[in-house]
Amino acid sequence: MPIFTPHIAIDLGTVSVLVYVQGKGIVLQEPSVVAISEDGDKTTIVEVGRAAKEMYGRTPEQIEVMRPLRDGVIADYFVTQGMLEYFISKASGSLRLRKPEVMITHPYGITSVERRAIREAAMAAGARDPVHLISKPLAAAIGAGLPIGTPSGNMVVDLGGGSTEAAVVAMNGIVCAESVRVGGVHLDEAIISYIRKKYNLVIGEPTAEAIKIKIGAAADLDEGTTMQVQGRDQVAGLPKTITISTSEVVEAISEPLQAIINVARSVLAKTPPELSSDIIDRGMVLTGGGALLREIDTVLTRETGVPAYMADNPIACTALGAGKALAELPILQRSIPDL
Ligand SMILES: Nc1ncnc2c1ncn2[C@@H]1O[C@H](COP(=O)(O)OP(=O)(O)OP(=O)(O)O)[C@@H](O)[C@H]1O
Ligand SMILES: [Mg+2]
Question: For residue 57, how far is its CA from the centre of ligand 2 (angstroms)?
Answer without folding.
Answer: 24
